[in-house]
Amino acid sequence: MNDPLPHPTVNERLIVDLLQELYRRFGLDYRNYSPTFLSRRITAYAKKSNLYSIEDLVQNLLENEKNLDVFIESFSLPTTRMFRDAELFQLIRDTVIPLLDKKHLSKVWSAGCSTGEEAYSLAIVLKEELPDRKVLTFATDLSERSLHTAKKGIYQLRRMRAYTSGYQAGGGRAEFSNYYTADHENAMMNAELKTNIVFAQHNLVTDSTFNEFDLILCRNVLIYFNRSLQEHVLNLLLESLRPGGILILGDKESIRSMSPRKDLLDIDRAYRIYQKTE
Ligand SMILES: C[S@@+](CC[C@H](N)C(=O)[O-])C[C@H]1O[C@@H](n2cnc3c(N)ncnc32)[C@H](O)[C@@H]1O
Questions:
Q1: Predicted structure pTM score
Q2: Which one of 75, 82, 200, 208 is most buried, counting C-beta atoms within 10 A?
Q3: Tally of helices (H runs) and strands (E runs) in the chain
Q4: What is the CATH superfamily name and number for domain 86-276?
């Protein structure tokens, strides 16, 4: 018997057909995700489901909605943690927030927020640095499952202990444990913090901008897209910034730098922080 679809022999043309079919039938647009990413996710799904040909895979997905849900969720790699790249959170406190127009500062966006850890980290930093301002954090993702976890705001206590060092290294001004209540296994983020965060589903590929933000974080998301889709999403993010607003892409994205633009100032090259000037 053959092995389930071995990497990298997944027939490229059939993948293109499959993606086209998902788009045509369900409006799911993965056509411009990076080929390596697509190939890995499709192969992993096929192996798990014991599928031996791309035709079986297509049939498996198009004839059963539950399978399709599992397949779509497998495209969302929710790896994240609080105060990921702690140094960046120190930079947000010391460099980014002082650059923002305090008179207007009211809305920030964590785009591709996964299970919410980035949004809670950002909300904590904003609360500590701007105690007298109500700043709303909009946190969006494609994955319903991740958003469900994010909205609950309940995380394993074991992980929260590990996040404490990130909080401190990122310039935390209080005790991290002030922000949650814990039982013996889980920690629940404080209700007050949660009222400053709006979680919602948003697809960076197919949805349009929905607000004007002072600050946008979009980290570890563009890596899944091909070059032209990266450009498309970058434009969407820039359109969503108010003049003077700041975009942070983080240090992992594969795009080397933004194409030079008159309306963008480089604030930090390592963490790809840009300010919109006009
Ligand atoms: C690796 S996580 C990054 C989480 C967080 N930003 C961080 O850096 O810790 C990538 C997230 O991007 C989301 N994502 C992928 N494609 C997306 C799209 N088209 N629109 C919105 N979110 C997307 C995935 O669902 C996943 O939760």
A1: 0.90
A2: 82
A3: 11, 10
A4: Vaccinia Virus protein VP39 (3.40.50.150)
